Amino acid sequence: MYISITHLTKDFRKKPRALDDVTIDLPSGMIGLLGSNGAGKTTLMRILCGIIQPTQGEVLVDGHDLSKGASRRALKRSLGYLPQNVDPYPNLTPMEFLDYVGVLKGVESASERKRQAGELTEAVGLTDARDRRIGGFSGGMRRRVGIAQALVGNPQLLIVDEPTAGLDPEERMRFRTLLSTLGSNRTVILSTHILDDVAQTCPYVFVLGQGRKKYDGPTEGLINAARGRTWLTAPLSTPPTGNISIVNASTTLAGTEYRIIADAPPAEAKPVEPSLEDGYMALATKEKKQ
Q1: CB-facing half-sphere around the CA of 24: CA atoms within 13 A
Q2: From CA 132, how far away is CA 135, in angstroms rounded?
Q3: Angle between helix 139-150 and 94-104 (nearest 10)
Q4: What is the mean pLDDT of the chain?
Q5: For residue range 158-186, what is the model confidence (pLDDT) as tens digits?
Q6: What is the 8-class DSSP label of residue 16?
Q7: Is residue 132 over pLDDT 80?
């Protein structure tokens, strides 16, 4: 599924511009959507889902113009969306809730809805709880129900916002594997602050900052933005200073080691292979200097 966005702008009353003249063509497959809070990610996803309309610009999904009601309705039949805050009906079981979502998505056959609900509860690790009321679930279990509902109807466009929030490490790995499988034959847009999830699953990334496009292209290209500029300091008693950005820190018996982005590193710092987190930080540092 091919997505083409041209001069997309979105304004809200009494708020900064959420999207500012964004133009991009997104390929099929797994796409990581990155950006800080307030960058415009959620607004972009809601526009792609047909929930809100842009102030200006054009969005084409598989040639369908989302400014037209008929195109938005057609898209929703092949769309799966997991918002950041999902709250499934507490009085229903996962099987009942997924059946209900199937009805909304136009899955007419009751037997097909039951089959999908069974497969999806198994895929997200809820087989043993499939007939329990959702109201008694933990936050992580409710999140898994949300993931399952986004997959009802075998959507060709899947948009997920912070899907692994609240999941334990084992659940995160299970869902990353599921996403990678799904991305082999459809378009999956993954918005998350957990950069390792993107690094492990998405060959392509799109970075937003203050409503504007900051980077789009191969994930490796963003990682390369930090190549030759990523360093690990020797143990220090105080944080390094100067024209550097601290990516993270780890405490040792001798002091604290800092992973930094810098053109001119402190003495005794050693170069290290950059990660996606380093590349993202290098891009943010570059933007601040401009």
Answers
A1: 23
A2: 9
A3: 30
A4: 91
A5: 999 988 877 788 888 888 888 888 878 88
A6: -
A7: yes
Rounded-to-integer distance, Cα 260 and Cα 19, Å: 30
Concatenating the DSSP letter of every residue in 232-258 gives EPPPBSS---SSEEEEEEEEETTEEEE
Using CA of residue 150, residue 155, residue 159, residue 163, what is the dihedral sign?
A: positive
Measured CA to CA, the distance from residue 12 to residue 213 in angstroms comes to 19
pLDDT in tens, 207-247: 999 999 999 999 999 999 999 999 999 998 889 988 899 99
pLDDT band at 266 (very low <50, low <70, confident <90, very high): confident
Both structure tokens of 22: 């964004």
| Helix-strand-coil split of the chain, %, nearest 5 | 35, 30, 40
Structural domains for the chain: 3-223 (3.40.50.300), 224-289 (no CATH)
